[in-house]
Structure formats: structure tokens, C-alpha cells
Amino acid sequence: MGVKLIIDTDPGVDDALAIALAALSPDVDLLGVTTVFGNVPVATTTRNARGLLQLCGRPDVPVAQGAERPLVRPNPEYSRNVHGEDGLSGQAGALPAPERAPDETDAVSLLLSLLEAADEPVTLAPIGPMTNIALLLAAHPGIRAKIGRIVAMGGALEFGNKTPSAEFNIWADPEAAHRVLVEESVPLVLVPLDLTHKCAVDAAWLDRLGESGAVGAALKSMTGDYLGYYRQALGFEGIVIHDAVAIAEAIKPGILATTSYPVEVDIGLGPARGTTLVDRRTPRRESSSRVVDIALDTDFDGLRSFMLDGITGGRR
Predict the structure, then answer these.
(1) Could you tell me the CATH number of the domain that includes residue 251?
(2) Mean pLDDT for the chain?
(3) pTM for the whole thing?
């Protein structure tokens, strides 16, 4: 078995594809999934995560529900306009009924127990707001030694998708993102919008997904509302599967090319709240900000093939 992985997620259409990529990969030991508010409320993200694991034939993977709101300031806005009312373009009800009940503990407790039990370093992949991860590291600082690295989808260097400068996951809980990105010492790869938009998949990719079998057809059926949004955003028939790009890096370290930069997160109350501030000046100025590996390039066709093959098992 390959990389030991825990996914923290808010499904979400792109989260659905990310979960499938990990759940179906023979190179992943998927230890657990924890859920957080984000694209839709946390009760819905938890239901979606359990149904998606059942769809992928993985009821063995425990799911625990996590934070229902940000650390500090209430944030009532979700992304239903992008992902649909149920987070999956109205198709959540078509998911198979989960065989396994949600874990009786909360997300932080499950994260802690899975990490403590691991016999080798574990990769954490937060692909929603970082509230659960911030709570874990704040309450249990000694657990850092069990985390090999964090691969997080979030942030933006040039443009945001929630505000002109802020990406949704960071904007949804900037204080949590600040804790994880700026204040911690765990090795971290940040996968921002600047890269994920370049990794967009087109209608032909989605057709191959849908034709690959029952799982692929179900996943494609969840992209309706999402495709409608990205048809306008991209100007062609396709979608951006942000979270699956991050999971690809979690599964295959180095599939994304990274560059190290000092990073800050704006936690003020002004219009820049939630902005990821990345210092790319050259020569590099002296800075007290933490240096983070930021994914900015990849073999785009190779990455798209890796994601499709991982979800379909090469049946396309």
C-alpha cells in the first residue's frame, strides 16, 4: 500500500472527484475522511462524503463530522451557486445509502486517533476550509510528528474566486488558514487557483469519465450545476477540479512543481480578508513570514491523464 492519507473535505463536486481519486487508487491507504462546512453546511458535506465512499466501494473508511462554522467570525455563505443546493448538482440523493454510520467521535478526535495509530508519517489533505486542521494542531501540538506533510487546496496569487483577491477555502476561515499556513511548522504544499485553473478538464475528459462505468457515470452526473458555472467562467465546455489536483499531489509527490515563497493570510476585516499574500519579489527580501511550497506548474496533459486513470482504473 502506498501513501497513508486522510482527507478533510466539504463535498462539493470537485471534492467528490478528489475523494474518488483517493478511494479508488491502489497507491493510497485512505485512513479516514473528516468533514467541514464549506461548499454546503457540514451535515450535508458529511452525508455526501459517506455516500461517495459507498459509491466507490469503500464503506471501510471512517467518516467523522467536523466544524460547522469558522474559528472566529460567523460565515453564513456557502457555494450553492456553484455546486448546487446539495453540493452535488442535485444528485446527492442518487448516491447509494452508506453501510457505515458516521464515526461517533468528532473530526478532530478521529484525526488524532488515526494519526496516533499510524506506524509511518501520514499525509493530511485539507481540500476545504482549514478549521479542523487548525483545531487539531492547536489542541494537540505533539501530533505534528505523525504528519509527514499537508497538501492543501487553497489560496490565490493573481485572482480570487470569492473576492477579487481571495480564494473560497481561505476566505471561509482566514484565521484557521493563518494558523495552518503561517503559524505551523509541518511541511506543506499549497495548491492555489493559479494552477488549478490551468488544469481544467474539457467535455471530452468528462465524456471518458462518464463512459468508464457506473462510478464514472455517477460522478459525471454530479457535474451539471458545476459545469454551468464553469462554462461561463472558462468560456468553454469544461470544469476546474481544484481538489482533485491537490489529491493527485498527495498521492504522487512531485506531480506538481512547487516553488517556495513566504506566505501570509489577511485576517483583517477589510475587502482583502482571506487573501493569500505571497511574496514573489526578487531578489527575496528578508521576511519573518513562513516559507511554503506553492504548486505553480505541472505536466498538464499528464496530470489530467493521471486523474482520469486513477478514477476510472484506466477504463476509458
Answers:
(1) 3.90.245.10
(2) 95
(3) 0.96
